[in-house]
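Workshop exercise sheet. Pairs work together: one partner reads the sequence aloud, the other fills in the structure field after running the prediction. Swap roles for the next sheet.
Pair: D.N. / O.F.
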Amino acid sequence: MRGNAAREGHRPVVRRLPAVAAVLLLGIVTSACAARVSQFGNFAQAGLTYVKASEVVIDEAGTATIRANNVTLVKNRPAIAPDKRLDEINTHNELLKARLGILQDIRRHGRLLQSYFQALAELAGSDAPDTAAAAAEGVFASLSKISPAIRTAKVGGESVGALIPAVTKPIVASFKVKALERELELRSEAIANEIALQEAAFTAIGKLLATDLQVQLNTFETEQVNNPFAADGTLPGNWTGNREQLLKMSGAAASTGAAASAARNLRASFESLVNNRFDRAALDSLLLDISTMLDIATKIAEGQ
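Structure field:
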């Protein structure tokens, strides 16, 4: 919340986010309107937009988890024996470092997926299919190295691996570029599983983000809204603004599953792409989900 951030000395992030949102949404509009771009090119552009929007979610999840932990530590500090406080803060620091490390792994995983989508787009229109196929293979090798750590990680109390949805093997259509067809036959099921891993990761992140935001909201509601209203005397000048912010943030906190929905649509769209059915309607649906994810993440960022 802005009030908490000011008191804790955090550098505000609100000023930069509208510009980020504008750039991403411009990319969405441009991508959706580029009728001459092949379906693989459109999908690669949508994948890039997904990654950029998902990184806003990851950033806000990291911020929220730190701030919620700060709230917990400040609240519990009086009950911790002075000679135990150093151990307590070090334990929390190590847990947060590990959690933030997982979030960064998920960020890198998303970027690698987008690189693979771009490699497919290059393979679809390439005059040097062997080179493009080698690039796709190299990206997939990198994905395979980072995925196990994400699969076995816990984000909050959720094991990412336990949240991975079942994936049906995509049906590969016949394509003019046979190197592209071979690549899809070889790795489309594995890539669908990697996208499913993104979906599971953002399902866990969404739950964690909702929990961490609620911790902040509870404190903000008590200190900035309820207590001032119940107290004698004149209300602070910012009271109505604080109450409005609280109610808006409560709505945003209830919509933290938007990133997982976007990842789910990304997987469905990839399956359509592999089957040569990724049309304008599928693209528009995917971009709408990505836009919703970005909108929710931006509202959360503006409220913190």
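Discussion prompt: Residues 2-303 form one domain. What would you look at next?
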